[in-house]
Amino acid sequence: MSFNSIAFAFFLPVVFVIYWLIPKKYQWVLLLISSYYFYMSWSAKYVFLILITTGVSFLSGRLLGDARFIKYKKIVLFSSVFVCLGVLFIFKYYNFFISTFCDFMELFSLHLHPVTLNLLLPVGISFYTFQTLSYVIDVYQCRVQPEKNFGKYAAFISFFPQLVAGPVERTENLLPQIKEEHVFQYENAVYGLRQMLWGFFKKIVIADTLAYYVDLVYDDPFSYRGGGNADCSNILLYSDIL
Question: Is 174 within 8 Å of 54 (Cβ atoms)?
Answer without folding.
Answer: no
